[in-house]
Amino acid sequence: MRGLLLRLAGSLPALVAVIIVTFVLTRVLPGDTATYFAGPTASAESIAQIRAELGLDRPLPEQFWSYVQALVHGDLGMSLTTGQPVLTDILARLPASAELTLCGLLIGMAIAIPLGIIAAVRQGSLADHACRVIVTAGVSLPVFFTGLLLVYVFYFLLGWSPAPLGRLDAFASPPPAVTGFYLIDAALIGDWETWRGAAAQLILPAVTLGLFALAPIARITRASMLAVLGAEFIRTARASGLSSRTLILTYALRNALLPVVTTLGMVFSFLLGANVLVEKVFAWPGIGSYAVEALIASDGAPVQGFVLTMAILYILLNLAIDLVNRALDPRARHT
Amino acid sequence: MSAATPAAAASQSVLDVTDFSVEFRTRAGIVRALDRVAFSVGRGETMALVGESGSGKSVTAYALLGLLDAAGRITGGSARLEGTELTSASPAALSAIRGKRAAMIFQNPRAALNPIRNVGKQIGDVLRRHAGLGARAAAAEAIEMLRAVGIPDPARRAGAYPFELSGGMCQRVMIAIAVATRPALLIADEPTTGLDVTTQAVVMDIMGRLAAETGMATILITHDLALAAERSGRIAVMHAGHIVEDAPTKTLLLYPRHPYTRRLLAATPTAAGNLADLRSIPGNLPDLRRDDLPPCRFAARCDRRLPACEAPMQWRELEPHHRVACWNPA
Ligand SMILES: Nc1ncnc2c1ncn2[C@@H]1O[C@H](COP(=O)(O)OP(=O)(O)O)[C@@H](O)[C@H]1O
Ligand code: SF4
Ligand SMILES: [Mg+2]
To answer: Relative to the CA of B303, which ligand 2 atom is closest?
Structure first.
């Protein structure tokens, strides 16, 4: 527990760095917020007036100081595009992104981990070759391309999936928010029609992300399983005549999962990045598409809020991975 | 070495190996790792298998228990464990024998144990597999095994992980895993390498005591002649995949007959050294991938070689229980 707190404290400098960098970036990036909002026909005076209202005319350190002060009070600023507090926007949209990313990760894991295990246990088998093909394909296909391809095939050609327009059909109403995850919230009240609708919308973008996550997970599972199967303690287990079930599941797999868990953290952070594109392709109302729209509008506060949210998510994620590692590996509990 | 006559009395023997040959198929050619190896080990007996590194001691152990990797296979001969033929046994049959009737322990005990499973469970796994115990009974019996190998406070240590134990403690755990099901045969492959001298003695004492208590036959694989001299009743000397001499320990140490054995003893003054550093024996082990390996694989290094040494090798029984594979023994 102390180690965990230390880690949390250790990530504070990174958080500070992220705050500084995002602040500077939004000020340095091309595009002038005041000009954008004043509109194309605005006079120089009205632009200057907007600039003064937004506090953009004060010196940078002063702006930064008031930004930090606001942050401490949980104030991420206002979005000029939506007219809402950024925190409200992000909290409203975060569950959409989280549900999508987690589903993508789960799909990736559900396929990649068994595939990697079989590929390692039966080297040279069909599964092994499949694993190699998928790893290569996964590395070379950009995620927006897989997304568009899936939409083209399953919506446009086959008509199997609904239009890629958000989390639910336009005529359906979302389930009452408990977790913000439609699949969970709909299941909680037993509204299976809404559940099916949400799942139908979710499946293509989640598969897109899953395909993206597949390659690194399958590769590391196979490699780590191979390494463990060659380890001396596996030889001991074989010399003790343990059944192949115990050997592979209890002895090899549990050890092989340690590096896989660490990789999952990395993959998850990749997914958070890939999300931005996937949300755009599928009109997914998450924080990725929110940030992209804000960026296009030179709306600084949402972009800052987005990057900050990502940084915090990343830190929490690493913490979660630490916890899982401690549960799996007694050696980790002692450091 | 055809028509091998194992030295131990056949009625007492736990393991009878005759004409046992193993090859590895590698990209660089076929490695003839073992060639017509023959020996027997009797109930309660400790036989040391000695030879310099690379002579085929570990391969012998792995091949007997069906643990060779995919490249290796047994090409001939027989190995009978209490009458059960091992060379023709199915993988399932071998896996039922391993850990139950024949067990093995290894060098580097910490790496040989599962790093993330507590040692009590690792002992319990063998008991559940072979002794038909349930989880609870296996856990209780595991604690008894830890006590039997002299681990203090066994109930608490059962929950320990290998990284929390010393090398010597880990080797005791390995022994507990190996003997948990009272096997008829224990193969110990360099069990004390890497342990300090005091711990070596303790570990060997434990193995000796358990063997005496249960009548277990032990094959002690080592390159340490001093250890073999102290702990075995009989020594078989291995060179390049051949057993070249096999005699009761005292006889072998006092009256070595094979030129290789003599060199080994000369290279380890008063038998107090080990064979890790054998530079005083000229030449190397022959390349076992050659197609034209001579009948005597020591010939290139031998100073007693005769033209007759080109003839196919045969065992010579110099006196009861002392045999040598040499045309011109000293
Ligand atoms: N997996 C393998 N592939 C090819 N050759 C092997 C393999 N394992 C062992 N050998 C050969 O068998 C010989 C004996 O090895 P080993 O039994 O490990 O010697 P040691 O007496 O030191 O235990 C080695 O010289 C090596 O050439
Ligand atoms: S058989 Fe001949 S060459 Fe081989 S060890 Fe004996 S004397 Fe030397
Ligand atoms: Mg060896």
So the answer is: 8
